[in-house]
Write a structure and sequence with these properties.
Elements (H helix, E strand, L loop, with lengths): L15 H5 L2 H5 L13 H19 L15 E6 L5 H12 L3 E6 L11 H9 L4 E5 L3 H10 L4 E5 L5 H15 L6 H5 L3 E5 L4 H9 L6 E5 L8 H14 L3 E4 L2 H4 L5 E4 L11 H7 L7 H7 L6 E4 L10 H4 L6 H19 L3
């Protein structure tokens, strides 16, 4: 494959002059990051470019800490109702790099919405910290926290959205498909993304961001797991504006036709373990494999993405550990996009 070298390097167009182009877009970000659906294409691009810039400074130039320490003297509360690996490591190291203090609060540490309402918790916690990074369950939990918090809130995950993950996906795609000297939009516009999997927060967030950036999406879910109509309508409007396309189907072979990027995720999300037996039946034929890509006619340089953790029924080892897979590059990029979001939002 011609693009394999990109799996270990960050994009080259992230020199200081390119980064400065989007300084104004970063300064106009909303106070909170709940979903990329609330952000313009320019704001999304600015965050991804900022993430690439941080990655270059740390990995290529050896910058151990931000020289300006934008979070010096600040405490960021990390409210994690759900356990994590990538999100916790990425966020704590990002806060340290920016000179701040990370306060991890798991579900056993505080009474988030248990003996105290979310509204009360938001008001109390935000009165003592400078920012909140929250990994919760229901979408209403993150919106309630944001509504009643006196400090910015960044969504680490909820059941409808996962913005920092999709920012990391965009950074990864840019690194792989970078056009020489091109911006994020120059490089990703017109790429074909095939989603093969569940109707969940990952594909919802992809639909909130990727069509807006000019990427074409083919979304394949079993008929029992449709994409909500509101999400479809918004994605269609974004696609029309950016001259992109969004299509939906239930046949994985048809979905990967012409795909540059094939993406899947867990079929059984955290808290859905009781549904596993039925989902194994419903998702029969949805495993991503070399055979599926060949039968469907994916583009010759197609790559595979998965936000992890991965289970064998979702993708074969042949794909997951192949040169086509960029899953570990994608996982690392969670740090750089979280770092960019924290720097832009919590340092104001």
């Amino acid at each position: 494959m011609s693009r394999l070298a990109h799996s270990v390097v960050s994009p080259s167009p992230m020199g200081s002059s390119s980064h400065k182009v989007h300084t104004s877009a970063l300064s106009t970000l909303p106070r909170d990051l709940i979903t990329l659906g609330d952000y313009s294409a320019e704001q999304i691009g600015a965050l991804v470019e900022s993430a690439a810039d941080f990655k270059r400074k740390v990995k290529s130039e050896g910058q151990a800490f931000h020289p300006d320490e934008p979070l010096k003297g600040k405490t960021i509360a990390m409210l994690f109702s759900k356990r994590s690996t990538r999100t916790r490591v990425a966020s704590e190291t990002s806060i340290a790099y920016l000179g701040g203090h990370a306060m991890f609060l798991g579900k056993e540490d505080i009474q988030l919405g248990v003996n105290e309402s979310l509204r009360d918790s938001a008001q109390v916690i935000s009165s003592m910290v400078d920012g909140i990074f929250a990994r919760v369950g229901a979408h209403e939990e993150i919106t309630t926290l944001a509504k009643y918090s006196s400090v910015p809130v960044v969504n680490a995950l909820c059941d409808e959205n996962h913005p920092t993950q999709i920012l990391a996906d965009l950074l990864t795609i840019w690194e792989v498909f970078e056009k020489q000297g091109g911006s994020l939009f120059d490089s990703v516009k017109g790429l074909n993304v095939a989603w093969i999997g569940d109707s969940n927060n990952i594909v919802y967030e992809m639909l909130a961001a990727m069509p807006k950036c000019g990427m074409n999406m083919s979304v394949c879910t079993p008929s029992k797991y449709p994409i909500p109509e509101g999400i479809r309508q918004r994605a269609q409007l974004d696609a029309q504006t950016a001259q992109a396309s969004v299509t939906y189907c239930h046949d994985p072979v048809a979905a990967v036709k012409g795909a540059d990027i094939i993406v899947t995720d867990t079929w059984v999300s955290m808290g859905q373990e009781a549904e596993k037996a039925q989902k194994m039946i419903d998702f029969d034929g949805y495993q991503v494999s070399m055979d599926l890509a060949a039968k469907g006619g994916a583009n010759k340089d197609w790559i595979f993405m998965h936000c992890l953790p991965r289970k064998a029924e979702e993708v074969t080892d042949e794909v997951f550990y192949s040169d086509r897979s960029v899953v570990f590059q994608e996982a690392e990029n969670r740090k750089w996009t979280i770092l960019a979001a924290f720097n832009a939002i919590f340092s104001k």
